[in-house]
Each structure stands twice: as structure tokens, then as C-alpha cells.
Amino acid sequence: MPAKAGERHRQGQSGPSGGKAVPPRPAKAVSKKRDEDVSTEAGEGVDEWVAAKTLVKPPDQLELTEAELKEEFTRILTANNPHAPQNIIRYSFKERAYKPISYVDQMAIHFSLNGNMILKDSDEGRRQSIKLSTAAKKAPVETSAITSEEAEIKGEESTEDTQPAGEEEAERSGTAEVADAAEAEEPPPPSVKEQKLANQFNFIERASRTLNNPMRERACQSEPTPCKNFSATANQWKIYDAYVEELQKMERSKEKEKPKAQIAKREEEEKKKGRKLTSLESQSDDINKISKAAKIMERMVNQNTFDDIAQDFKYFEDASDEYRDQQGTLLPLWKFQYDKTKRLAVTAISWNPKYKDLFAVGYGSYDFMKQGQGMLLLYTMKNPSFPEYVFSSESGIMCLDFHNDHPYLVAVGFYDGNVAIYNLKKATSQPSYKSSAKSGKHTEPVWQVKWQKDDMDNNLNFFSVSSDGRIVSWTLVKNELVHTDVIKLSVEGTTMQGPEGLQLQTLGCGTSFDFHKKIDYLFLVGTEEGKIYKCSKCYSSQFLDVFEAHHMAVDSVSWNPYHLKVFISCSSDWTVKIWDHTIKAPMFVYDLNSAVGDVAWSPYSSTVFAAVTTDGKAHVFDLSINKYEALCTQLVVAKKKNKITHIQFNPVYPVVIIGDERGHVTSLKLSPNLRRMPKEKKGQEVKRGPEVEIAKLEKLLNLVREPESKAEK
């Protein structure tokens, strides 16, 4: 360290150029004097500085500890405006309610200055640019004269001043003298005034914060329909020519579509039947072409209108069933109604076997005093607002049934005893085939009709049951309905003594019947007396068996779709009974505390069935879960002057449709507890099919049969 300091001291003495150094002693003396003065001044002012630093503590100051003094308080500065309102509310047209606005403008403007900006291409901009260019050309001419005079005066002054300066510099060096003389001889260049450009862009520099754009909704807008102006004069002869041209066009199209022979045959048939042409047949081809497109559009509009119901039908599953202890519910879906059927009761419901969303509804009246016209409507779940087909009849419709192989054929029974067949393919409002007094129609209301397999000659065949005690087979032979009496329901012990010793036998009144699913000849008949007869097509004079089933009229009887021995019946005596046709006593009896209007087996399980009562309630049972009570008892219609008449399960979807006396049809969805399937066990496949369903019901029946079998032994 001392050696290095010595070297530096020597370098300072010798200097960087190695020349002679100026003696430094006088400088040291001056610096010493300055240091002494500073030190004496500092020494004198020490007491004053210390006295100034003494802290004066106010009397009301808080006493804080060291830890509290060292504690830091952070404060975050945000760009939010504290004066901006936070509770602004606007009306939301999307949600149809008043909603608070989440976005509030936080920017506060402290200073703003409006400027003037003119486009260069505008007239005013061109005028100003020309004015500026002419002013710029005049300015250099005037300034050049002034600058020359100023340059001469400045040149004289500079020569006088530079002479003594040149003598002094000549003593020091000769080169500087020559340079100064050259500079003095050259005059300075003329200075041109810089013109300030105008602000053409109205630019104001200020800091700003980016705005948060509010959320915007995206919508679709269709293209406007093309419009065309048309003008013409309408005279009487022009209108006549237009009508004639339209008639000729219709005749040509009919001739092209159908050969002349078919047209002649059709005209003969129309003369025989006296059938009237409907409005659909008389419409022009243009309307027929757009009818399909209009139907699709109508369904799309309805799907949008009832979107929430469609979503429930497709996806909703009631999660609360897990906590209901095996109880279930019915979720209301669509309600089908038609203006012309408000005063008519729903007397029959049937699902189409091919199109699972299509069902037929028959309208009439069960009241003897309120008989009038009837209607047959076909609805689809795709369009709940309006029926697909509408047929009106002179008498009330009491029953109907779809053909399994020909789903466009509907057999119908009327209150006046007639039966008819409607063909949905034909655009007519009248039935294609209908019975008459000559062809052997019933003398009392027809309560049920059922299609059967075609006869030996492949003729269409269906059966009907009526209050006149006759069960009739109707066969379609050569476009006519031919009847055959299968059996007459006679009541035992009711023979009456007629005039001249004649014995008159009272006939039973049939109210319902059902054919066995496997055994073709076997069928059941329910009567107004409460008895159920087991009959055969082969025997017309006697019954195979008689069940003393109910104390009042049997409203419905139906075979189980899986088990071959089991059938169910319901009656106005408030009971629903399940039978084995080989045993006279019922297997299960349920009292529903009100007259039972209809009962139906479910298509997906052998142990599930549903019944409706006149007090407006629907009851759903599952024997495999609870043999004693219904899993669901739910009010479907209001009690005031309204009763439920019929219920049917959809063959595919978990939906039931229920009809009432006011002409309304309500669709309801079954909750998961009402359609429970067997649970899957680990490593085992769940067996499903008819055999499993038969075994499930047979197991329940064995529990009931055991006491009887022991007693017989």
C-alpha cells in the first residue's frame, strides 16, 4: 500500500506529459485555510444543530411500542373511481327482469381540450394550404434584403473587435491568427425563420385508460324477403280467363296422375257411397306442395315454444326419488286439447303400433242424456298444439283400436251401435267402411273393439262387444263389413215366462273384453253385472268359465303382456283385482276408495300397472316392490266436475297419457322409481327379457297360491 501511494505521488508531481510541474505549495496553503474556516464554522454551529433536533412531543400523542411502530400498513392504489355509483340497475329484455349492472365506467376526465382539424382534401383545407404556400414564397424575398444589411454592420464590428485579439494571439501562436482573419473575412450565412406548422390532426396528448367493453349478445337476422312491384288492370274478362286457365290446369294434372279407368272407377264409388269431397281434394296443386313444408315448420315452431317440456321429456330424471323410500312421482308434460271437443269426454285412447309418438283419441259422452256428435282425433307428441287428423261423426265414439300390421287402419265403435273402419291414407272425413242396420249393427252402444288376425281368405277381421249381449266378428269382404255372432251373453237364472208359455232369456250386457296374447281362440268378457266370462271363439253356446269378479260393472279387463295365465280387471266398486284364469279367486285385490275408470299393464314390466279413479287421481303399482300399496298416487285433474276416464302406457317411452271428461289428454312422465330395473351385480350380467318377467310375476303368485294348495292337499 505505501509503495503504491508513493508511485501515485510521483506521477502527480511529474504529470502525464513528463514536462515541468508548477510548484504546489501555494495551493496547499489555500486549502488549509479553507479547511480551518469550515471546521471553525462547524464547531460553532454544532450546538445549534443538536438543539434543533430535540423532539417536541405533543401531549395527546399515542404511546406506541417498538413493534407497533415498526408495523407496516400497505395501501393498494387502484384505478377505480371512488365516486362511481355501484348500484345501477337496468331492465334485461333477455331475462325479463331488472338486473344490477356489473360494469361501471371508472374513467374520470380531469382535462379536455377540443381542437380543430380540417381534412386536406376538403375545400377549406385546400384554401389554407394555398395561403400558406404563397406566404412562404413572399417571406424569403423580404428577409434576404434585411439579412444583407445586418451582415455588413456585423462584419465591420467584427473586424474592429478582432484586430487587438489577433495581436495577442499572434504572440502565442501564428496559426490561430491566420484562421481568425479568414473567419472575419467570411460573412455569416443568412438565417431563414422557421415557420411553425399548424396542428392538422387535432391531436391532444393525454393519458387514458382502456375501457372494458360490456358483454354483448349475438343474434341472427334473416335476409329480407324479396319484394317486387306489380301493377295491372283487372277486368271481368281477365278474371274469367284466369279462372278458366286454373280449371284447365287442374284437369290436366289429374289426368296425368291417374289413368282414365281409375278416375271412372272412383267416380262410380263416390256415386254409390255419396261421399263428399273434402277441402283437401279441391285445393290446388300449389297448396299440396307446400303442405308438407308447412307441417315441418309448424312442428319446429312448436318445438321451440314447448322447448322446456321437450327437454324434460328427453332428459329429466327426478333425483329426489333416491330419498323417497321407493315412492315415485308423475311429471306433467304436454296437454292436448282441441276447441271443438271441449264439451265431449275422452272415451278411448290407443297408441299407434308403428309410430310411437302418435296416438288416437275418441270423443263422445257416457251420459245418456247428453248424446250428440263424436270426434276422432290423432295427436303426435311432436305437435301438441293441434291434431294431425280430425274426423267427426254423427254419433259419439266409444272405443277404437289400431291394426297391428296396417297402422293406418282404425276400427271404431259408436254409441248408436255401429262400427266403422277409418283409413288414414285417404283424405276423407268419413269412414271408409261402416256397418248399418241391414249388415247387423248392434242395438246398444259398442263398448270395445279389437283387431284380430286375418281369416283364412286374408280378409281383415275385428271383434266388438256391446250392451246388447252380442260379441260380433266383423270381416271386410269385397269392401263390405260382414258380421258373424260369436257368442251371446246369457245371464243364468234369469229366464222369464213370456206370453203363451214362451221362455225369454235375459242377455248380459258386455262392457269390455280382451283376447289372449298367445292362444287365439281364448278371450275374456266383462259385464255390467260384475261377472267375467272366459270364452272361446269355437263355442258360441257356452262359457269356459265364469268369475264372480265384482259387485258393479266391469270397466276394463286385460291380459298380462308377459304371463299367459294372469289378467287384471277394474270396476266401479272401487277395486282392482289380479287373477289367475285357472283359479276362481283373485290373487290380489286393491281398494282405491273411488270408482276405477280404467286399468292398464305397463309394456316394460310384468308387475307394473296403472289405474285411474273418478276422483281425479292416477295410481301406479309395482308388485315386485310393494304388494300392498301404490308407489304413486297423484292428483292429475281438478276434482270440480271432472273425472279421469282412461289411461294408456306408451309402448317405448316412460310416458302415460290420461284422458278426462272435459276432452283434455294429459301426458305424464314416470319417475325412475316407477320403472326400476334389476340392479347389476359385479361380475354378473343382468338377465332381461320375457322369461325374466314371467319368473318375477310367478314368484309373487306362488306366495299367494301356497295356502290354497295346502288346503287342497
Features:
713 residues, disordered C terminus, four-stranded antiparallel sheet
Please give the count of helices. 11
Structural category is alpha+beta
**Strand arrangement, major sheet:** 3-32-31-30
The rounded Rg comes to 54 Å
Summarize the structure.
This protein is α+β, with helices and mostly antiparallel strands.
What this model shows, in words?
With 713 residues, the protein is an alpha+beta fold. It contains eleven helices and 32 strands. Strand 18 and strand 19 (522-527) form a beta hairpin. The longest helix is centred in the N-terminal third of the chain and has 50 residues, at 123-172. The chain starts with a helix and ends with a helix.
Write the layout of secondary structure elements.
Elements: H1 2-14, H2 25-52, H3 66-70, E1 89-92, E2 97-100, H4 123-172, H5 175-185, H6 236-257, H7 260-273, H8 279-282, H9 285-305, H10 307-315, E3 330-336, E4 345-351, E5 358-364, E6 374-380, E7 389-393, E8 397-402, E9 409-414, E10 419-423, E11 433-434, E12 446-452, E13 461-466, E14 470-477, E15 480-488, E16 490-497, E17 503-507, E18 510-515, E19 522-527, E20 531-536, E21 545-548, E22 554-559, E23 566-571, E24 575-580, E25 588-591, E26 596-601, E27 608-613, E28 617-622, E29 632-635, E30 644-649, E31 655-660, E32 665-670, H11 690-712
Antiparallel strand pairs: 1-2, 3-32, 4-5, 5-6, 6-7, 8-9, 9-10, 10-11, 12-13, 13-14, 14-15, 16-17, 18-19, 19-20, 20-21, 22-23, 23-24, 24-25, 26-27, 27-28, 28-29, 30-31, 31-32
Helix pairs in contact: 4-5
